[in-house]
Amino acid sequence: MKNGTVCYTCTLCGETFNEEISTGHSYENGVCIHCGAEEQAGSAGSDDNSFKMSPVLIPALVICVVGLICFLLMKRNKKQIDKAQEEK
Questions:
Q1: Rounded distance between C-alpha atoms, residue 40 and residue 11, angstroms
Q2: Which end of the chain is less packed: N or C, by CB atoms within 10 Å?
Q3: This prediction's pTM
């Protein structure tokens, strides 16, 4: 995670000051070192780095595997049919 800086400027006098901000949580001993938020159960490290699987991913993978199996079976059956026709 990268931290950033916000620059505030007074609209009356033009004086400015910078404030450092963080772009995510970094936990130490179950507490965020930036904002003090407590770490959620099951959270490991920075909450922005966790892997979230799309609900569409598993069905898509199943369809691909089934399609591959069907393709291989059809290819095998075609070879068996071709071989049987050659024997005649």
A1: 40
A2: C
A3: 0.37
**Torsions phi, psi for 9 (to 5 deg):** -125, 130
Inter-residue contact 20 to 3 (CB < 8 Å): yes
CA 1 to chain centre: 15
Task: Give the domain extent around 19.
Answer: 1-49
20 contact partners, CB below 8 Å, separation of at least 6 = 3, 4, 5
Q: Using H for helix, E for strand and C for coil, what is the string for 54-86?
A: CCCHHHHHHHHHHHHHHHHHHHHHHHHHHHHHH
Residues 16 and 3 reside in one and the same domain: yes
Q: Is 4 helix (H, G, I), strand (E, B) or coil?
A: strand
Same structural domain, 58 and 33? no
Strands 31-32 and 27-28: antiparallel
Mean pLDDT in residue range 10-21: 86
